[in-house]
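User: I'm designing a mutation panel for Endoglucanase and want to avoid disrupting the core. Could you give me a predicted structure to guide residue selection? Please restate the sequence first so the numbering is unambiguous.

Assistant: Good idea. Sequence first, for numbering, then the predicted structure tokens:
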Amino acid sequence: MRTHSLVAAAALLLAAGANAQAVHSGTGADDPPPPKDILTLTGPLVNSSAYVAPTDPKYNYVEVIHKSYLFYWAQRSGKMPAGQQRLAWRADSFVDSKGFYGEDLSGGWFEAANTMKWGGPFAFTAGQLAWTVIEFGDALKVVNEYDEAVSWVKHGAEFLLNTYTVDAATNTERLMGLYGDSAKPSNASTGSTDIDFGYFGPPELYLEGVPGGLPPTPYYCEGSPTVNKGCTDIAGDYSAALASAAIVLRPTDPVFADKCLNAAKTIFAFGQKYNGTYQNAATHPESGWANYREWYASNSVTDETALAATWLYIATGDATYLQTAQAALVNQDYTEYSWADKGIAAAILVNRIAPDDTLATAIKTFFTRWLPGGSIPRSPRGLAFNGLWGSLAYSGCTSAIALVHAKVLAGNATEAPFAKQLQTFAVQQVNYMLGDAGKSFVVGFGTSPPILPYHKSSYNSILSYPLRGQDQGVVGDDFLMSRTPNRHIAYGALVNGPEVTDQYVDNRENYVYTEVTQDYNSALTMATAGLIDYYTAAKFTPFSDCNLDLGWAHPNATLANKPKWADGDCYHTCAPCIKLANGTYVSSSSATASNGTSTSSAAAPDATNTNVAGLPVNTNSKSGSAAGTAAAANAGTVLAIGGALLALVAL
């Protein structure tokens, strides 16, 4: 969730060339006029204290998570994988992107409507996608979403692996922490000029239309015997994402998992050795870092240190990391869970590993703030509201970790009622997003979904870009001020969300309501995976791309790029899935006569070995190196979680 002020946000809209109204932020005589297109939601008013979660799932959470993963295809950067280009309106972009030291920075995904890659929020998203698999992987397997989930974990890790370099000649370590220029300074009298934020065309044509024709600039954290330009916060984010990715990927790709784990350890050590933050303008004076501070301010480095050390402990079994995490959590104040504040996530994981009364009390205090009657306000229709910018993502992130923590508490008779409160909270919050408030806030899902999301490439795409060649001020005015629905469906994108009054502004002009971002969707992804697990995955059937409008019927679509999926592929085509004897669904092309059954089979999933966070253990996989062997040796440590003994392993 961005932390930029609403007044500044309105000013940026004006700077982009739009005659936009400021976002309403009060009722005084000098306040700006209220925004246009205000919608007051029509869902029933709710007494959240009396809310009872439906016994059966009210919404198809598998459809939601399928579309949420599809959103990352809309955001994908670099060369599209051959034969897998899901969306006709996206293609190769930024394929020649290089850092100053030769790093390949083409991959990963874009932050939001723009093409920025802010290191911290990117890594938070990558780590959240990995945690989703670690925590709820069994459920994802049952509903045929596991492979897609793992592929995005690997894609994010591949980008992060390219961000760290060493100059042996000068003993200089560098970590690329930001790629792109949202704006550039012009002069003292006029301030800055939007660059990336001033481009409103498709990513594929960025250099053709971006103001000034400026390619993205990489910005570095750096450390050497004579320089300390450290970014302990960004290094912690990267390390946490790579360590958790190593856990996810070890069963299927142990060699790549070792690369992730080794990089996670190296980057973590770099961050600790050169302690610092990009929030320090004295050490990070460049314009890119100034923009970073404006949009994604760093509040501290201890939460990133704690979370990275926790995942490194889970991945390696090295007690030094656990001690580092515990030390970083001392006197932490847990107020939210977001890209900016991850301490509560580390606390939940550490308390599972080494239960501690003080930590357990702090965790309970955090969640009590969010539950009915707590200090977090509630909208009339039940949204737990922690702030306008990213209102749905705040509640989504909290819902995700509430479901994680509830699994820990559920097996404890004393704590089981509180676990139920956490689960009820998550159901209410996610259902609010999906339609309980009177409309869906997820593009392409449910009743009255958003059709004017602040998402540039689904409005101006390589297939449909009517103002191509015109000045970006003109293109931007059209994008912001027009009420033309986006020309393509950015399936699964979660918008910012409504006010605490349940009022929502339905246009692209006031993007504090309608913007979509990478981290918002990581919250939606993890929370819906948790609800599939909560309701038991056996209650759901797989969802597929069948009948989705992915743009291939557009007259300008390049049909030669349309994927030719295998016969029987039930993830991408209309082919039915086959249900295996263990309850897991697979494509018929993957099933065999010996283990496939009809889709009406009622077989329950087989019991599996699991690690500390619930990831099924592949007992047949072999570690690719000594590092993997050492991690596997950690399997002797067991924890009582949810009434079962779960082996602490790094797979």
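For picking mutation sites, this is relevant: The two ends are 32 Å apart (CA to CA). Residues 119-142 form the longest helix (24 residues).
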